[in-house]
Amino acid sequence: MIPRVIAIDGPAASGKSSTAKAVAYQLGWGHLDSGALYRAITLAVLDNLGDGGRGKGDGWGPQRIIALAEDLPVRLVLVDNEFRPEIAGVDVADAIRSERVTQRVSEIAAIPQVREWVNARQRRGVLEHSQGVVVDGRDIGTVVFPDAPLKIFLTASADARARRRLAQRGEPASPEEVRREATSLAARDLADSTRAVAPLTPAPDAVALDTTGLDREQQVARVVALARDRLPG
Questions:
Q1: What is the rounded CA–CA span in Å between residue 204 and residue 174?
Q2: What is the percent of the chain with per-residue pLDDT over 90, rounded to a whole number?
Q3: Phi and psi (nearest 5°) for 57?
């Protein structure tokens, strides 16, 4: 059975999660942020296994990470159409956004066994919502839900994404700060698009949406229009 999923992929700070959440709200669908589960696992590792994996992850090991995620457990819980991350029964939606987690999440997400574990839980989560689920991430349309009836790939210039990221943090967007953040995002893009496992790349049948010149309402409206055209009812 083809899952009733809208897959939204794109690079860091392209507006995936906020767009996906707004689209889900307008359609009455669920919203699943795949990055939240990767961040929750990263937080669990840092809090319970320490920084022993710094550099190569030698102090952690895939099986140890997965065992920890199963035992605590780390999971997504559907609350009012939103899949929220929990660790040991505690909502960690705010805690996973810390800089401490941000610095290490790419390392955890690059581990093949961790990705398989996360993907299985995303697929299971979609079955919990009968209407449909909007899922955002970096490999949703290519790996997790390759049969999704609607795939969107969001893009935006590095400068535009840098300004958005700085605004989210409440930091001044001086030319110097924008350049610094844009350089950091470009490095993240390169790492994500060249990694051996599930690299960041648009699915062949994805609709590309450049949001550089769009505000949030405009980009949400375009995705909702596509959804209502391709997924009526």
A1: 37
A2: 64
A3: 75, 15
Q: How far apart are CA 4 and CA 88, in angstroms?
A: 29
Is residue 221 within 8 A of residue 156, CB to CB? The reply is no
Q: How far is CA 146 from CA 5, 6, 88, 223, in A?
A: 10, 11, 31, 18
Q: How many CB atoms lie within 10 A of CB 123?
A: 14
The tens digit of pLDDT for each residue in 25-74 reads: 999 999 999 999 999 999 999 999 887 655 444 568 999 999 999 999 99
The two tokens of residue 93 are 């939606």
Helices (H), the chain: 16-27, 34-49, 62-71, 99-102, 105-109, 112-126, 158-169, 175-194, 216-230
Count CB-CB contacts under 10 A for residue 233.
5
Residue 89 φ/ψ region, left for φ over 0, alpha for ψ in the -120 to 50 degree band, beta for the rest: left
Which residue carries 């919203």 as its tokens?
A: 31
